[in-house]
Amino acid sequence: MSNLTLKQKIMILVGIVGAILILIFQRGLYSKSDPVPQKLEQKQQTQEETKTQGEPQIVSTNPSPLNDATIMPSQSLEITFNQPAVNEPELKITIEPKADLKLELSNDKKTVTITPLKPLLFGQGYTLFISSEAKFAGGKTLGHEAVFHLKTISYKGV
Description:
27% of the residues lie in helices and 28% in strands. By secondary structure, the chain is of the alpha+beta class. Strands 1-3-6-5 form a 4-stranded antiparallel beta sheet, with no helix packed on it. A 4-stranded mixed beta sheet has the order 2-10-7-4, with no helix packed on it. Strand 8 and strand 9 (140-141) form a beta hairpin.
């Protein structure tokens, strides 16, 4: 090795360091963890998903997000649950200030469309409530009250 020039020694050193860096980036800096903890973690996630699938929950709204939304006075709202509802009246949906609403469930009974029978007032704030006693298939209830604050667009005239 004494016959190598300084330039050649530096190139060999750079090559070795490069190879080490490539190995570190490909395999990671730390050793892989045991598969047993990963399986345990996956099992816990699966149990958690099963648990949440057992409870009725709101999975989406239209408009999204519904809370703090600004809507048209006659605009319909949609709320989708992860489980089918029993029927429209059992969802126990109300709005304050009071307004007459038409509730309509989709064919799979997971999405409720809420339409005001008369246009809501311009520039008015409303609070939409879904009771914790809202009933779903299998005798389940929502378990917590869902509250959405929204308002209608303002109209200042011409």
